[in-house]
Amino acid sequence: MSTMPDLVPAYPETFLALAGMALLMIGVFRSKDATGLISWLAVAAMAITAVLIVTGSQGPVKTFSGMFIVSSFTSFAKLLTLAGAAVSLWLINAWVHKEQIASFELPIIVLFATLGMLMMISANDLISLYVGLELQSLALYVLASYHRNNLRSTEAGVKYFVLGALASGLLLYGSSLVYGFGGTTSFDGLATAMASEPTGNLGVVIGIVFVISGLAFKVSAVPFHMWTPDVYEGAPTPITAFFSVAPKVAALSLFLQVLAGPFAPLIGQWQQVLVFISLLSMGWGAVAAVAQTNIKRLMAYSSIGHVGYALIGLAVGTTEGARGMLFYMLIYVFMNLGTFAVILSMRVKGRAVEDIKDLSGIGKTNPGIAIALALLMFSMAGIPPLAGFLGKYFVFMAAIKAGMVPLAVFGLLASVVAAFYYWRLIKIMYFDAPADAFDRPDTATGLIMTACSVLMLVLFFASAPFVGGADTAAKALSLG
Fold it and tell me: Is residue 22's pLDDT more than 80?
C-alpha cells in the first residue's frame, strides 16, 4: 500500500500552482480588462511563496520518493528567482499599458514559468528535472512571441522554440545514457553509483556531456548561445528582462545541483568541459558585443559573458566557487533588471527606441537616466566601488585558490575587453551631441531603475549578509 508523500516541503510550489489557476479563473470571468489586477495578484502570490520558502524547512528534506529536495541552497536560489520574476512582472505590467496590448494571460504565463523554475531548482531526479525544465521552457516560448503582430517577436519565438526543442532532445538523450549506464534516474542513486566508479564509465561520461549541453543552452553559454541575440532583440523588452534574470538563475542553480550532486565524483571528467564553456562564453561575450548597435543585442552578448564568469565558480568545483557563483548571480539579477528598466525608459514622443546612438547626450537631456545607466555599466564592467567588482573578485579568487590561475587570468582579460563597450555607452551619454530627449519614465520603471543602481553601491559596502547567505547555500552542496 503506497503512502502519501510529505507535501510540506512542496508547499511553496503547490501554493504558486493553485494561485496561477485561481488567477486564470479571475481573468476569464472578469468582464473588463483584468491585466493590472492579475499582475499585482501574481506579484503578491510570488511574495507569499517567498515567505513560505523562508518560513519552511531549510532541510535538507526530500519528498515524492526522493524526487524533490529542499535545502538552504534551494531556498537561496528560489528566493533569487522569485525576486527577478516579481520585478520583471512589475516592468511588464507598466509596459503593456503603454503599448495598449494588455492581456491578463501574460502575468499568468510568467507565474507558471516561475513555477517551473522553482521545480527545476528542487529537482533531485532526472525526471523531475526535465518536467520542471519543460514547464518553464514552454511558457518562455509563448512569452518570446507574445507581441504576435510584431514580426521580430514571432521570429524570436520560433527560433527559441526550434533551438529549445533541440536542447531538450540533447538533455533527454544524455539522461537516457546516464540512466542506461547508471541504472537509476535518482540523484542519490547516481551519486552512489558514480562514487563506486570515480574514473567514470564511458557511457555515463558521454551522457553527462549531453546533459551539460542541454543545460548550457538554457543559460545561453557558448557554443549553445545562438538563440540569445535574436530572442533578446525580438522579444518585448520587459519579457527580455525576465529572460535575462529568472531563467538564468534557475538554470545555473540546476547546473550546480546536478554537477555537485550525482556527478560530483566525476569532477575530473566534467570539469574540463565546464572550463572550455566558461572560456568560450567570456571571450565571445566580450568580443561580439563590441560591434553591436542595438542595445538589446549588446545586452544579449553581455549576458553570455556574465554566464561565463559565473561558470568559473562551478568549474572550480569547490564550496568557495559555488559561493562566488551564487553571489555573482545575485548581483547579476539586479544589474540586468536595472539596465532593462533604463532600456524601457528609452522612449521618444511615445515611441520606443533601441539603438545605442539614441543615448547620445542624455547626460544633459535626461541626467537621472544617465546616472543610473552609468552606475549599472560601471558595475557590469567590474569597477569598484560597485557590486560587480565583488562578484568577479569572488569567482576569480575561487579559481586562483583551486589552482586554476589561467582561467582567472583569462576572465580578467575578458573583463578588460568587455569594459570597452560599457565605457562606450557612458561616453555616448556624456560626450556626444544630444539627440532627442527621452519621455519621462513611468513611476514603476523609474523606481526600479533607481533602486537597482543604488543597490550596486549598497551591495558593495554592505555585502556581508548576502555573501553569508550564499556561503550557507553553497555549503549545502556536496563540494570540496
Answer: yes
